[in-house]
């Protein structure tokens, strides 16, 4: 399935992004020969009037590394989907991204403009293609200060911004911190403030809608999950305490029913159909995006044990709209909020 770089067979173990990297090498090219990136392709960005700073940039990334730029980055290459979305929300079009097709399938919060170079998979980007786009900044997601991807990119004379993709201690704050860090690197702080303010207002309004629909009955239990099929077996991944999906649900007044073990970064658990049967008094929510590598929802629909779980048998199992990235930035988070509200108030 298309997840963050988390091992499919052991989803509670967070692994480095760059376990395997394509053969490296730069393509020599004059920057003047490179076309300027187009503006991010959205009506909102076309109407955006927020300013872009122009001075030198000096900042500290998520792992304490100093990043210095002569001016805000314009030609950015991005190797993870949350950060691709963030760049587009800031009305900056990247020159290169990893797995453009996957992004288009799993993250519909921001549309990827035409002409962006695809540099291969997120876990195994082709660095020759990447640096052939002449970026002035490469944005990555790392898990440790000495992540393998950072070691590989350090061989090139291009600044690298390392962001922390998740933190179960406060997933919403980490999402916003990552977004604002990218905004500083691209000189789009004013735009970032407008987006973050919009997200917070969106959340507050949604909370009121859910409270009004609940009409004093008390917060209900819920669990959001996704999963995959391998060898005919179904594995289910609940989004527990510390997950972005879980936190957004709780921000709306719900109670996360998954109390089992989760990983310390993404707040993700691991279980099977029998394990989910123990949560049958909760409302189930799950991804509506069909994984090209195997439709877990179809597999569950054919399972007799799954059909007997109260949440399933009583119609309290709901699919989110397709294309909502559960590890995204503020715009994806707004989509998540809208999905919860639509399903809770219908």
From TrEMBL:
PROSITE patterns tied to this protein: FE_B12_PBP, PROKAR_LIPOPROTEIN
InterPro entries for the chain: ABC_transptr_periplasmic_BD, Bact_iron-sidero_bind
Location relative to the cell: Cell envelope
Residues that span the membrane, as ranges: none
Keywords of the record: Signal, Transport
GO BP, one annotated term: iron coordination entity transport
Keyword Nucleus in annotation: no
Claim: Transport is one of the keywords in the record: yes
A Gene Ontology term for the protein's cellular component: outer membrane-bounded periplasmic space
Signal sequence, start to end: 1-31
Chief subcellular location: other
Region (Disordered): 29-53
Domain of life: Bacteria
Residues annotated as domain Fe/B12 periplasmic-binding: 75-346
Family: Belongs to the bacterial solute-binding protein 8 family.
Protein name: Iron complex transport system substrate-binding protein
Organism: Nocardioides kongjuensis
């Amino acid at each position: 399935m298309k997840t963050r770089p988390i091992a499919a067979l052991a989803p509670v173990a967070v692994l480095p992004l760059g376990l395997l990297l394509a053969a490296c090498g730069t393509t020599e090219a004059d920057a003047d020969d490179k076309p300027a990136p187009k503006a991010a392709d959205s009506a909102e960005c076309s109407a955006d009037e927020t300013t872009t700073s122009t001075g030198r940039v000096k900042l500290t990334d998520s792992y304490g590394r100093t990043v210095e730029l002569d001016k805000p980055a314009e030609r950015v290459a991005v190797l993870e989907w949350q950060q691709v979305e963030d760049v587009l929300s800031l009305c900056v079009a990247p020159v290169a991204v990893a797995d453009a097709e996957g992004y288009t399938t799993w993250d519909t919060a921001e549309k990827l403009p035409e002409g962006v170079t695809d540099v291969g998979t997120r876990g195994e980007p082709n660095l020759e293609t990447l640096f052939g786009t002449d970026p002035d900044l490469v944005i990555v997601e790392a898990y440790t200060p000495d992540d393998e991807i950072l070691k590989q990119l350090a061989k090139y004379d291009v600044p690298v911004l390392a962001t922390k993709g998740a933190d179960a201690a406060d997933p919403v704050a980490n999402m916003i911190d990552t977004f604002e860090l990218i905004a500083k690197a691209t000189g789009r702080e004013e735009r970032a403030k407008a987006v973050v303010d919009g997200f917070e207002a969106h959340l507050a309004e949604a909370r009121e809608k859910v409270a009004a629909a609940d009409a004093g009955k008390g917060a209900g239990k819920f669990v959001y999950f996704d999963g995959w099929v391998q060898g005919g077996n179904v594995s289910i991944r609940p989004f527990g305490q510390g997950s972005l999906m879980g936190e957004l649900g709780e921000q709306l007044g719900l109670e996360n029913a998954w109390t089992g073990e989760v990983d310390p970064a993404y707040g993700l658990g691991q279980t099977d159909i029998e394990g989910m049967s123990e949560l049958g008094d909760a409302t189930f929510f799950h991804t509506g995006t069909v994984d090209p590598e195997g439709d877990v929802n179809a597999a569950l629909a054919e399972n007799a044990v799954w059909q007997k779980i109260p949440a399933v048998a009583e119609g309290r199992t709901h699919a989110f709209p397709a294309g909502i990235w559960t590890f995204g930035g503020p715009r994806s988070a707004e989509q998540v909020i809208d999905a919860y509200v639509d399903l809770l108030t219908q």
